[in-house]
Write a structure and sequence with these properties.
Blueprint lengths: L2 H14 L4 E9 L2 E8 L2 E6 L1 H5 L3 H17 L16 E3 L2 E7 L11 H15 L11 H14 L6 H14 L6 E3 L9 E4 L2 E4 L7 E3 H8 L6 H8 L5 H24 L1
Antiparallel strand pairs: 1-2, 2-3, 3-5, 4-5, 6-9, 7-8
Amino acid sequence: MSASEAVRAAVSLAAAHGVACSDPVVLKQGSNLLVHLRPSPVVARIAARTALVRPSVSDHFARDLSVSSFLAGRGVPVVTPAAELPAGPHVSDGFVLSFSTYVSHDPTARLPRQDVLKLLPDLHAELRLYEGLLPTRGPLDDVDNVLTYLDGLGVPGLARFRKWRDDLLAGWSAHHNDVQPLHGDPHPGNLLITPSGPVWNDFEDTWRGPLAWDLACSADKEEAAQRTVEIYSGGAAPSDVEFHAETRSMFGTLWGVLMQWS
């Protein structure tokens, strides 16, 4: 299905709940499609490539809404579920979608990764209090699902990814330390820069895993793991950050193949 069909589905569903949209604007088109339902202060998140490789994509969307709602209640600056209509997740015209509040921000602005790392300890402290059910394999589930999907398409060259995955799995337990609820994908693009300060976004990938995973997501590739831990102010072993930076690299590279073939 096309992006235009997805937008129409979101506009139609919003209208059915009394939310008018005369000027939908696509904010982002990638793993998911994000659409500002102007003039309403509502953003539709519509599963795109995620729907291809996540059998439980509705659960991911529900988790995003649940975690962000919890954090907002704790006073954490986050993008909240929409109040103008049921936030979802919904299934409409074959699309999985949810609704969140539009936050005015500068889409071109990014915090330096070091500044993201400095914000993570406070976020992690609040996430530790979250008692909802969370996945425990996180990116490993995505890796398995993407490989299965690409294999079904006959994509060549997947053997190297399977070996890469198996090599990482062999060391997974040794680096599965300091486990807690994580953001899951706290790169600078998931912090919206608003006039009142940075606002956390996108808890779709939240899982219960090693703290080093989030640090690896926010670490500069040129930054030594030891320095990453120092900026964060402790919390994880540098060797764990190095390991999960490699996991993150494999995950990102494989997702790039998916983007090319879907």
